[in-house]
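Supplementary Methods. Inverse-folding protocol.

Structures were first reduced to a C-alpha cell string of length 268. This string, shown here, constituted the complete conditioning input.
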C-alpha cells in the first residue's frame, strides 16, 4: 500500500514537472549576460595558462584519492572551488571538471578518435545525433554537432564549434573548443523543422566552451575536461521544480562524454 502511494505521488510530481516545463516561456540572451560569460572565460583562461606554464598539468594529480578512483575505472566529476554554478545578470554559468583514465592505449590513439568528428554521432550517442566537419586545417577544426538533451523535456540544438589542438610533447595534448553558434531546433525531424533565432529561445544552452587535457602515463591515457556553459535562469515560479534539473544537466553531459570516450577506446 505504501509503495502504491509513493508511486502515485511520484507520477503526480512528474506530471507537474512536465506541465510546468512545457509552459516555460522563451528568454532573450541579453548583452550583459554575454559580457559576463566572456569575462568569466577570460579569467578562466588566465588560470589555465598559468597552470600549464607551472607544470601543473593534470587536475587529477592534486587529489590522490581522485587518481585511485580513475585507475579503478570510475569517471570522476567535480566543481572548481566546489562551486559549479555562478549567477550572472539574466543567466547562469555552469563550470564542471571531469576526468577518466583509459588503460592500454596511447595519447595519439585517443586524439585520433576525438578528432574524428564525422563519427561523433556514433561514438557519443544518444546525446550527439549528428556531426560533421565544416573546416579542417592542421590542428584547427570547425565542426557541426547536433545535440539532443533529454531530461524533463527534449531539446534539440544545432551547434558549431571552433576547436584548436596543441601538442605540448609526445605524451601531452591540450584542446580548447569555443561554441560559435547554438540554435534551438523547433519541431526536430518533423515537417516545418526550423531553428529559433539565436539567443531568442528557451535558453537551455547559450554558450559552451571546453578545455581538454590528455596525458599518456601509467600504462594508459588520462583524459580531463573543464566544460563551461551558459544557460538562462529558471523563472522563480518554476525554480523548485526545474532548477535542480537544469543545473545538473552540464555535469551529466560531461560525465556521458567522458564515459563514451573511455568505452569506445576500450572496445576499439
Amino acid at each position: 500500500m505504501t509503495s502504491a502511494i509513493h508511486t502515485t505521488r511520484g507520477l503526480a510530481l512528474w506530471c507537474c514537472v512536465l506541465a510546468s516545463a512545457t509552459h516555460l516561456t522563451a528568454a532573450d540572451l541579453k548583452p550583459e549576460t554575454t559580457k559576463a560569460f566572456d569575462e568569466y572565460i577570460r579569467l578562466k583562461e588566465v588560470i589555465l595558462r598559468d597552470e600549464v606554464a607551472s607544470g601543473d598539468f593534470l587536475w587529477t594529480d592534486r587529489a590522490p584519492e581522485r587518481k585511485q578512483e580513475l585507475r579503478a575505472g570510475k569517471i570522476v566529476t567535480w566543481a572548481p572551488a566546489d562551486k559549479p554554478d555562478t549567477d550572472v545578470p539574466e543567466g547562469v554559468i555552469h563550470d564542471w571538471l571531469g576526468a577518466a583514465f583509459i588503460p592500454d592505449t596511447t595519447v595519439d590513439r585517443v586524439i585520433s578518435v576525438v578528432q574524428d568528428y564525422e563519427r561523433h554521432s556514433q561514438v557519443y550517442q544518444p546525446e550527439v545525433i549528428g556531426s560533421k566537419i565544416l573546416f579542417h586545417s592542421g590542428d584547427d577544426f570547425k565542426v557541426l554537432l547536433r545535440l539532443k538533451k533529454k531530461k524533463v523535456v527534449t531539446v534539440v540544438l544545432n551547434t558549431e564549434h571552433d576547436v584548436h589542438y596543441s601538442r605540448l610533447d609526445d605524451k601531452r595534448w591540450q584542446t580548447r573548443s569555443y561554441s560559435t553558434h547554438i540554435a534551438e531546433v523547433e519541431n526536430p525531424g518533423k515537417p516545418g523543422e526550423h531553428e529559433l533565432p539565436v539567443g531568442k529561445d528557451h535558453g537551455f544552452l547559450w554558450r559552451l566552451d571546453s578545455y581538454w587535457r590528455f596525458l599518456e602515463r601509467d600504462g594508459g591515457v588520462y583524459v580531463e575536461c573543464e566544460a563551461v556553459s551558459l544557460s538562462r535562469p529558471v523563472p522563480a515560479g518554476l525554480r523548485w521544480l526545474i532548477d535542480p534539473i537544469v543545473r545538473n544537466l552540464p555535469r551529466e553531459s560531461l560525465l556521458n562524454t567522458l564515459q563514451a570516450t573511455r568505452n569506445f577506446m576500450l572496445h576499439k
